[in-house]
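A further point concerns the way the authors explain their paired sequence and structure data. Nothing conveys this as quickly as seeing an actual entry. An entry of this sort, consisting of the sequence and the corresponding C-alpha cells, reads as follows:
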Amino acid sequence: MAETTGPHGIVQGRPFTVYDLETMPDDGHRYELLERALLATPAPGYKHQKVVLRLGALLDAACPDELDVLPAPFAVRPSVTVELQPDLLVARDEDLTEAYLPTAPVLAVEVLSPSTKLHDLNSKKAFYERLGVPGYWVIDPLEPRLTVFELGDDGDYRTLGKFTGPEAFDAANPFPVRVVPSELIGRRREP
C-alpha cells in the first residue's frame, strides 16, 4: 500500500508511530497508540473527571517523595509504537522526562467510560501486564467499583479484589492509601 497524506497531514498507508500523534488535531479527543493502532476517545464526562480528580488528590496526598502522581494526558511511551495516557499514573521520579514516561509506571489507573471500557479492560490491561506495570486499577464510576490487579511472580495480573460502594481498599502498593469507591464520586449538585 502506498503512503499518502490524509486529513491533518497524517501519513496513511503505513502503521502509526508516536510521531503521528503530534499531528493529531486539538479536537477534544484523546489520541493514544497501542502497538501501532490508533485509539481515539471523546472527552470524558462528569463522573469520570470527578473520580480522576478525587483519586488523584488522594494518591498525591499519600505519595512518598520518590514517586509522582500524574493525570492524563501525561503519556507512557515505552517505544515509538506505543503511547498510552492512563487517567492517572504513579511513577518513580527518576524515570520521568519532561514530556513522557519512557518505562513502566508503578501504577496505572483507568476510569471506565462507555467509549473506553473495552480497551481499558482488555487491550490496555494486557499491554500494561506485558510492560510489567506492578499495579493496574480500573474504576467504574457508575457502580462505583474499584477492581485491583497486581502483577504476580509469573508476570500475569491477578485480581487482588473488587471493592464496591462503601467497601474500603487498603492499598499497600505502590504505597499505603485507603480508597473508598463511593467517596470518589461525591455528590452531584442538581442543575
Remarks:
- The CA atoms of residues 119 and 125 lie 8 Å apart.
- The two ends are 52 Å apart (CA to CA).
- Residues 44-185 form a domain with the tt1808, chain A fold (CATH 3.90.1570.10).
- The mean pLDDT is 85.
